[in-house]
Amino acid sequence: MLKIVLQRSAELDRRLEAFTRSLSYCLSRGLEEGILKIYTYPSPDALVASSLLAFRASTEGIRSSLNVTYRLPQTVEGPTILIGNLNVNYKSSDVSDCLLAISYEDKLPTPPPGATYIEVDGSLSSAIALSLINEGWKGPKTIKLLSLIGTYSTNYVDKIGKIHGIDSILVESLSEHGISMVTSIKAYKPHQLTLCKALSITINPYYPYITGDEENCKKLFENAGKDELAERLPSSLNADELAKVSKIIMENVEGISKRRIDPSEYFGGILTLPQYPGDPRMAADALLASAEVLRDPLIYLASFMDFEHEYPIVESFLRQMAKNAKLELPNIRLRKIKGPGWLRIFAISDTSLSLTLTYRALKLLGLIDKESIIAYEAGKEILASPFQVDEALGIGSTKKLIESKAADIDQFFLKLRI
User: Fold this and answer.
1) For the residues 351-371, what does the mean pLDDT come to?
2) For site-directed labelling of 113, which of 136, 202, 236, 418 has its Cα 20 to 30 A away?
3) Is the distance from CB of 398 to CB of 406 less than 8 angstroms?
4) Are the C-beta atoms of 270 and 160 separated by less than 8 Å?
5) Is residue 270 within 8 Å of 181, Cβ to Cβ?
6) Alpha helices in 295-396 (DSSP H)
7) Fold of 2-144
8) What's the pLDDT tens digit per position in 25-39?
9) What are the b/e assignments for 396-409, b being 16+ CB within 10 Å?
10) Nearest CA-CA partner of 84 in 49, 112, 59, 131
11) 3-state DSSP assignment of residue 180
12) CA proximity to 304, closest of 287, 321, 279, 282
């Protein structure tokens, strides 16, 4: 019986060593038994963490069974790892093999004898990455960067771009790769693409009439007499240039939304990774959007197992979504759905848009409040995403909806009862 809290403190190295021993033991048991069972809660961070772990297992010839589920097995028979689950309530009589549970701080009870529970002050992805690095796994050199995809799926990156918890340790350790953080406009691939190219593919945050339209972006800067800024890399803008970009962008957004916008929604700290062709924030949004629109959370695992070849397909999917957003979001029709009195549900008919990214855009523009559910209207069915539900209502809300009979499980999605 062991419970470990991973947080940035003087005790971290010792606690990380204990976590690594428990993880290594479960992996070795998986090799002996011929299968390692992984149960992951359907959240982006948990899926990244699970994919990293399944990738690690595969390199040692360990067959893993990755189950994306709200419900855990009643008993543990065979080596089992739980990631991101909140309802972990096993007794000693329920557990007959290795059991390792990893979740967020203050979310797990006291473990039964023989089990190890890990609570993390940070993303689950960073916890897994730190343990695998501590173990000495000779996996991909990009493991730290891949874990940042999970970081950018959580609240451990605040609005101004600062990274908190144990995730900050990983970022600091990337200094050897030339990683740095600069204050700039929030855009995808800010150190690789020119300003308008970057903004035209950025859907989080949403730039009205610019997302999906590079030419309209260029016209905006041309009309402001600052067309030269449109050809600059966002990460290369100095303070004076950034102030000019800020004025142009904020006047445009506020003019369209007819409301005051917090500048930190659009400007803040961004990571620059000169030796890495990707952008972890963009990757986080791309995988999330793909999983929602394709209704297949295992897109995370497929991408991680062959990231070099699979991820470009996922990224192109997000670029196309930006173009769809240009056509759909300015004139989107929200139909308020009558459901349980404590839920605010709005339905959209366009299933080519990510529900979570659409929710963020509409919330930013003041069209909905934070505690709203955006769902697909598919015939007579109203389908919600667990990603968006938990983001709007809090971690674990998806499970509460199911337990309260407000929703049924429809594979990965939730079928709301209305």
Assistant:
1) 93
2) 136
3) no
4) no
5) yes
6) 299-305, 307-328, 355-364, 386-393
7) inorganic pyrophosphatase (n-terminal core) (3.90.1640)
8) 999 999 999 999 999
9) bbbbbbbeeebbeb
10) 49
11) strand
12) 287
